[in-house]
Amino acid sequence: MRFVDEFRDPEMARALAGRIAGLCEPGRHYKFMEVCGGHTHTIYKHGLEDYLPANVTLVHGPGCPVCVIPMGRVDDAIHIAEQPDVILTSFGDMMRVPGGGGSFFDSSARGADIRMVYSPLDALKIARQNPGKRVVFMAIGFETTAPSTALTVLRAAAEGIRNFSIFCNHVTIIPAIKAILDSPDLRLDGFIGPGHVSTVIGCRPYAFITRDFDKPLVVAGFEPLDILQSIYMLLTQLAQGRAEVENQYTRAVPWDGNARALEAINEVMELRPYFEWRGLGFISHSALKVRPGYAAYDAEAIFATPGVRVADPKACQCGEVLKGVLKPWECKVFGTACTPETPIGTCMVSSEGACAAYYNFGRFTRARVREAAHP
Amino acid sequence: MCLGIPGQIVAIDPDNDDFATVEVSGVMRRVNIALLEKGSVGPGEWVLIHVGFAMARMDEDEAKASLTFLESLGTAFTDEVEALRQSGIED
Fold first, then answer.
1. Looking at residue A374, what is its pLDDT?
2. Does A370 have pLDDT greater than 80?
3. Given B53, B59, B69, which is nearest A8 (Cβ)?
4. CB contact, 8 Å: B17 with chain A?
5. A38 in contact with B, Cβ within 8 Å
6. Minimal CA–CA distance to A177: which of A323, A57, A276, A314?
7. pLDDT in the model for residue A4
8. Which tens digit of pLDDT belongs to each residue from A15-42?
9. Which residues of A touch B32 (CB under 8 A)?
10. Which residues are registered as beta bridge partners of A277?
11. Number of domains making up chain B
């Protein structure tokens, strides 16, 4: 329990660990998926698995928006960036994500004007300052980030800025969770639900997990104590034979979400019939595109993108890691050919990717050391 | 990009109430507050900020405890604050 003093309430953490152990039925194995990459980061950074009994396993899910962007979309973005008079803007997390023809950094080295921004509003500012350039924002993220992109498009429209567009790669979390539940590869006992996505979508969209799959889900905050408490809540439901949606993160997540944010998304974007997720393949209605009414701000309508599907490198097992079938260290290239400095797969690029989080922190925890010694 | 960071509202922009000046870990930045109900936040109150937009209100105790946790994340947090510092959000 070496990290216990970093907890907001160390006594509470010790008490929760004890109560979690008390709730586990001997001989039963519990597998919970934390959907969100932010949770994965906390779990490894704080060695949370060391607080759990051996028969409780945490499985890392697909909730890292950088990790799920397929290689073909990176290539499309680079194709746009390399058109005349284009400035491509992107969150820093995307810069090293490899496509079939290299990363944004590689394209930048070839001469493309690719700039890191903190916010889509920064990209809009670059458009205002460069009226002779076509400024494209590489829009990625789940429902947490989509409202910000949508409001930026609305602002561009209100101001009549015509040299700004978005290359929309926003994805939606619910179809990904459903794809995982439909997959025969993995048996799960419940979900630790994403916190920030739920500030926007609320808790109601998760109801199908309890109704159709009879699994509990607890929306959780990002601190170690939040995650321990959500595991305790999941185990309590299982012990009582319940499968419900519960909200541990009430201090930030309203049950109905953020209506204004949902309205903004709905005004500017609509569901795509299908979208490719790295590792998970094509998932129906799992991503957003710009509505025809805002086509002037849609990079896919302005630029002809190749749209070529590029298979992931054979050695890379990001797909299995994103579905929770493999732990990061079980991937063939983890830590050898694939490291944060020279990533092959996306899970090693983003700091919220399961492989990067494990590489940076998790492999030093005692439980893993034990596991390595006695596989 | 995935981190949400608490910030304290210093002032609502008198010319455009979609924006506010917010202090985040000693850094003053303009932040878009249009995703929150109009008039629901004012100076001194805390909000959760993600890519330049306030996503939710927070109470002060929660915001401060959350900052302590985020600071424990090390570079993941300092990189985010640095990106926010360099951000050029303006009207």
1. 53
2. no
3. B69
4. no
5. yes
6. A323
7. 45
8. 899 999 999 999 999 999 999 988 998 8
9. 121, 148, 151
10. A281
11. 1
Chain B residues with CB inside 8 Å of A251's CB? 58-59, 62
Pick from A93, A119, A151: which is nearest to B34 by CB?
Answer: A151
Which range has highest mean pLDDT (A181-190, A359-368, B47-56, B79-88)?
B47-56
Is the model's pLDDT at A165 over the cut of 90? yes
Does A1 have pLDDT greater than 50? Answer: no
Q: Residue B67 is part of which domain span?
A: 5-87
Residue B68 Cα, gap to closest chain A Cα (Å)? 8
A115 in reach of chain B (CB within 8 A): no
Contacts of B35 (CB under 8 A, 6+ apart): A147, A148, A151, A258, A260, A261, A264, B53, B54, B55
Q: What is the mean pLDDT of residues B51-79?
A: 84
CA distance A318 to chain B (A): 19
Question: What is the per-residue DSSP string for B23-73?
Answer: EETTEEEEEE-TTSPTTS--TT-EEEEETTEEEEEE-HHHHHHHHHHHHHT
CATH number at residue B59: 2.30.30.140
Which chain B residue has the Cα nearest residue A254?
A: B56
CB neighbour list of residue A145: distance below 8 Å, 6 or more residues apart = A65, A139, A170, B1, B50, B51
Closest-approach residue (CA) in chain B for A361:
B73
At residue B71, does pLDDT exceed 90?
A: no
pTM, entire model: 0.91
Contact B72 A6 (CB under 8 A): yes
A308, two tokens: 């070529």
Closest-CA distance, B44 to chain A, in angstroms, reads 18
**In chain A, which residues have their Cβ closer than 8 Å to the Cβ of B87?**
117-119, 121-122
- Residues B49-54 have a mean pLDDT of 94
- Whether residue B58 is predicted with pLDDT greater than 70 in this model: the reply is yes
